[in-house]
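Morning run. Coffee first, then this:
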Amino acid sequence: LIAAHHAAANEGLRGPAIGIDVDCEHEPRLLDAQQAGILDPLAVKQWAIRYATQAATTVLQVDQIVMAKTAGGPKLPKQQGHWDDQD
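And here it is:
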C-alpha cells in the first residue's frame, strides 16, 4: 500500500486529498478523498469525539459537586459551653 502511494505520487497524484480507503471490502486502496466526498480525516473525527466526551464528563462532575453541597453553606456545630470550662 505504501508502494502504491509512492507510485501514485510519482504519477502526479499528489496533495492532501490522496488517501487510503479503509472501508474497502477487499484490500485497502488509494483514492482521491475530495472526489469521494470525504472532507474530514478520520483522525479529526476521533479527536473531536474525544474532546466532546471529556467536556461532557467535566460538566457532569462539576454538576455532581454542586448538587452535593447544601444550600446556604455548612452549618456550624452547636456550642457546648466554653472549651476551657472542663475541670
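The helical segments are 2-10, 33-36, 42-68. Good start to the day.
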